[in-house]
Automatic annotation (TrEMBL):
Signal peptide limits: 1-22
Protein name: Prolyl oligopeptidase
Keywords, ordered alphabetically: Hydrolase, Protease, Serine protease, Signal
Lineage summary: Bacteria, Pseudomonadati, Pseudomonadota, Alphaproteobacteria, Rhodospirillales
Native source organism of the sequence: Nitrospirillum amazonense
GO cellular component, one term: cytosol
Example of a GO MF term: serine-type endopeptidase activity
Superkingdom, natural source: Bacteria
Pfam families registered for this protein in UniProt: Peptidase_S9, Peptidase_S9_N
Domain Peptidase S9A N-terminal, first and last residues per copy: 148-432
GO biological process: proteolysis
Domain Peptidase S9 prolyl oligopeptidase catalytic: 499-698
Length: 721
């Protein structure tokens, strides 16, 4: 599940001006839950409390049983050692994340530091500095001289969304004595100037300034050296909002826009431009995000069709520009100009600015593209950059002081490579090829499509041996996400290559509705009560693989995490006969209580709410926790979660495993006490443990016993497990 939190007057005068705006033991197994009545008794609700002693004792017993079983059924130690080695090599290749200017505050790992005896994990930085007006002009291609550069470093204790923020000197490679220090919380912090911050967070220990989703909705101005309880409030949203956060946009021409972003729901926004003592609500559509400020123009990404004040309509998925001065003069009636209009099978993913150009990344038929935009005669000329196909393209670094940037390109069989792009010529040069973690020469990648229940074509990638025999007996691992407008793109995984493909497996990634692969409409097609379309798409891909004789149910495993974990739970309960093994990771599974667990209430715009009768009826009809049926046969299921997941929470996974066990269904459960909803902050061994457990489980359940296919070789009869 994606996180909500991501990102001239003298400072004190501006701050004052802005301030004027203002423990239960386990119960006996109950009868099956129908999920169809307005209320029900949940015998496993006690497992929702992450750090409950009773819950943690239950977790310890489950972990012990799962590890013992996988150790007996699969070469688990080999899987773990191989995955750890590959994780270490990936860290050495790409870096595990470093403090600004590469400085480690203590220890050997630049991503880890210890504060007052507590281990913290680097979670990002936000730096501020001003160009020295007395310095000579920089040489062509060089950076200008920056005065007083200082950084805010976000530090997480275990990889969760909450962070502690400290000021860091990238030259001294040390925290600034007496510098800015914001205690642990879910928070968004931006620089107003060298001595002033705009901060959204909970402002006391009672969490009174947090929304029901657990995110901040009060923004204050914090001066250097000022106690937090003396900060000046400039904006307050509502407790029913998802969040409120500040943002600062600047351009090379000296324009600055101070913006407050209120999110009434997960996807909808209201943008307020701060002007002196006033906030001006911009007349942007609800589904819109500000991207950059360039040449006095606010560039906006549209999540819906928008008819502007001039009467022109721009399609969803477009980038358009709004003049900042005009917005200040008449914020309610905005006019816009086109910047980038994607094609019918294209989804834009990012836009950055360089010295003389804008650069857009997009996915065209789920293949990464990079496009340079150049201002010509009041419009934008587009030039496509030639990069490897069947890959994912991401911007690694860019600067508005240069007309060059670096991008990363990776595919299922091609490790991440770094390319340098000259924006004036739109020419790309390979700077560093990635180091392969496995021999990819025996394999190939195809893009096929299935037809869903309503006739919609659903594409999917299949990674397989070039000499794959369509016998219906290939061990196949199918994964998808299908939510929150997020796309599943080609991704390199040496672990999948070494521990799955090299053992004779086939790997499949499905691009189902609910994701962002084809723009906003692809996402909106599976919102709320229409979500069955996403589930049907996934089932259609599975049936297509079986029909093409790639595999059969006994050899077909499925895996997904977060929203993908919900997808796996629905696939398990709706079509248990289609799967030979199922892995459900950091999932949502109790859809009748998801709004009351962790940050669940922030996702009502995606899933719907039990407070709306029609939506509650649909949620009850698909909620995996309630739909477990004591009369049906289910494949053995592996459920994985993390104690410190403060986004989805471990309760969904725990309760589902407990119900399966109580109903006599085969289930394995493993909960990590390291990390949060993802792998941020984990060392190599911890980061490798989850994939190793998962692939050992799939290998032991889907691959014929005593048969193993070495890399590029033949099946070896009688090889040891």
């Amino acid at each position: 599940m994606p996180s909500v939190c991501s990102r001239v007057l003298p400072a004190l005068l501006l701050a004052l001006s802005l301030a004027a705006c203002a423990q239960k033991p386990a119960a006996e197994p109950a009868s099956p839950l129908s999920g169809l009545s307005s209320t029900y008794t949940d015998p496993y609700a006690w497992l929702e409390t992450p750090d409950s002693p009773d819950a943690l004792a239950w977790v310890a017993r489950q972990n012990q049983r799962t590890l013992a079983e996988l150790t007996q059924d699969a070469p688990l130690s080999d899987f773990i050692s191989t995955a750890t080695l590959l994780a270490h090599e990936a860290s050495e290749e790409g870096g595990s994340g470093a403090l600004p200017s590469g400085g480690a505050v203590d220890g050997k790992d630049p991503a880890v530091t210890t504060i007052d005896g507590v281990r913290h994990v680097y979670a990002g930085s936000n730096c501020y500095g001003t160009v020295d007006p007395d310095a000579p002009p920089p040489a062509p291609g060089a950076d200008p001289v920056v005065m007083g550069r200082t950084c805010l470093v976000s530090l997480s204790r275990t990889g969760e969304d909450a962070v502690e923020v400290r000021e860091y000197d990238p030259v001294a490679k040390a925290y600034v004595p007496g510098g800015f220090h914001l205690p642990y919380a879910k928070q968004t912090v931006v620089w107003l100037d060298h001595d002033t911050l705009l901060v959204a967070r909970g402002w006391d220990s009672s969490d009174a300034a947090l929304t029901r989703s657990g995110y901040p909705y009060v923004v204050k101005v914090v001066q250097r050296g000022q106690p937090l309880d003396q900060a000046h409030e400039i904006f307050q949203g509502r407790v029913t909002d998802t969040s409120v956060s500040p943002a600062i946009f600047r351009d090379r021409q000296g324009h600055r826009a101070i913006v407050l972003v209120r999110r009434p729901s997960y996807f909808t926004t209201e943008h307020y431009l701060v002007e002196g003592r006033h906030t001006l609500k911009l007349g942007l559509p609800p589904l819109a995000e500000l991207a950059v400020l360039a040449n006095g123009q606010l560039v906006v990404k549209l999540g819906q069709d928008w008819q502007t004040a001039s009467g022109r309509t721009f399609p969803a998925g477009s980038y358009v520009s709004v003049d900042l001065d005009a917005a200040r003069h008449d914020p309610a009636k905005l006019k816009a100009a086109p910047v980038y209009l994607p094609g019918p099978r294209e989804a834009v993913t990012n836009l950055v600015k360089a010295r003389s150009h804008l650069v857009v990344t997009s996915d065209e038929n789920v293949r990464g593209r990079l496009t340079v935009l150049t201002r010509v005669d009041g419009g934008w000329k587009t030039t496509r950059v030639d990069l490897p196909d069947m890959s994912a393209v991401s911007i690694k670094s860019s600067s508005e002081d240069k007309d060059k940037l670096t991008v990363t390109v990776a595919g299922f069989l091609t490790p991440q490579a770094v390319w340098s792009v000259d924006l004036d010529s739109a020419a790309a040069t390979l700077v560093k090829a990635g180091s392969p973690g496995f021999d990819a020469s025996p394999y190939t990648v195809d893009q096929w499509q299935a037809v869903s229940t309503d006739g919609t074509a659903v594409p999917y990638f299949i990674v397989h041996r070039k000499d794959m025999v369509l016998s219906g007996d290939n061990p196949t691992l199918l994964t998808a996400y299908g939510g929150f407008n997020l796309s599943r793109l080609p991704t390199y995984s040496a672990t999948i290559g070494k521990l799955w493909l090299d053992r004779g497996g086939v790997y499949v990634v499905a691009n189902i509705r609910g994701g962002g692969e084809f723009g906003p409409a692809w996402h909106e097609a599976a919102l709320k009560t229409h979500r069955q379309k996403s589930f049907d798409d996934f089932t259609a891909v599975a049936r297509d693989l079986i029909q093409r004789q790639v595999t059969q149910p006994a050899r077909l495993g499925i895996s997904g995490g977060s929203n993908g974990g919900l997808l796996m739970g629905v696939a398990l309960t709706q079509h248990p006969d289609l799967w030979g093994a199922v892995a459900i990771k950091v999932p949502l599974l109790d859809m009748l209580r998801y709004e009351a667990i962790a940050a669940g209430s922030s996702w009502v715009a995606e899933y719907g709410s039990v407070s709306v009768p029609e939506e509650r009826a649909f949620l009850a009809s698909i909620s995996p926790y309630q739909r477990l049926d004591p009369t049906r046969t289910y494949p053995e299921t592996l459920i994985m979660t993390a104690t410190h997941d403060d986004r989805v929470g471990p309760g969904h996974a725990r309760k589902f495993a407990a119900r399966m066990e109580a109903l006599g269904k085969p289930v394995l459960f493993y909960e990590s006490d390291e990390g949060g909803h993802g792998t941020r902050g984990l060392d190599d061994a911890a980061r490798a443990r989850g994939p190793a457990l998962e692939l050992a489980y799939f290998a032991s359940r889907l691959m014929p016993r005593h048969a193993e296919r070495p890399a590029g070789g033949q099946v070896v009869a009688g090889a040891a497990d």
